[in-house]
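#structure-requests
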Amino acid sequence: MISVKNLTMRLTAGGRTITILDNVSLDIPAKQMVAIVGPSGSGKSTLLGLMAGLDRPTSGSIILDGMEITGLPERDITRYRRQKIGYIFQSFHLIPTLTALENVAVPLELNGDAAADERANELLAAVGLRDRSGHYPVQLSGGEQQRVAVARAFACRPPILLADEPTGNLDSATGRQVIDLLLGINRDHGSTLVLVTHDQALAENAERIVSLRDGRIESDKPSGR
């Protein structure tokens, strides 16, 4: 379960204080798929990054599977994220000097998995990229890179998957393939899936849609799927 309580995020720049998130509270049960929508600047990606422990809020708390992460030292947050959270970036964030196989194997190796390469090969096969395992990111299409990123995010079978605009840089057909992969992981493995998107049609695939505006939750309702 993900529990966000009274989360506020403010930044100061040029003598001005900007409120990005304003007292946001949100509970997401285990295994649920939730879409977070809203216009640019509404705080969607900031909220997702805070859930992953990539940044610290100004105030409030985030509890993931019973663990309060907001007060943890950076080393402990990194360790927890590596074991419990898969994060998918809009811009893929693959390591350019590593092959697809090596990129997927990185989190497995960091967790001490002796069969990292074997597991990485299985994951690439699951996303339809077995024959691209030796290719570097520059040799892959955008859709292929995002599928590698999905495989990497799920490498350690994390209970929580967070996806920030996972189809934002893809055409509609390729984006559909990536979403089907995420839906399958949520359905078949019971991972909690939270995705940020501008695409209302994509959001309708979720069980629940949370809409942000000006750093606040404007609505929180079932998708009707």
